[in-house]
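Re: that chain you flagged

S.,

Sorry for the slow reply, it's been a week of failed gels. I finally had a moment to sit down with the sequence you sent. For the record, here it is as I used it:
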Amino acid sequence: MNSAVFFLVVIVALATLGVLATGVVTMLRGGEFNRKHGNRLMRLRVLLQAVAVGLIGLLLLFGRD
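Prediction finished late last night. Pasting the structure tokens below so you have them in one place:
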């Protein structure tokens, strides 16, 4: 189970990094896409970070021997 949770943490962390990079590039470029989706991307980043932190907490909680 620990390896499955660790795998999920890696996936969610990479997804967070992808959304963060997309959001930053979008903000730097500006334009219509940023006006429509910039705030949504940052909210998605916060949600993914919360999921990652929760999974890390589960991993630490149940990973103890």
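What I noticed first: The mean pLDDT is 91.

Talk soon,
D.
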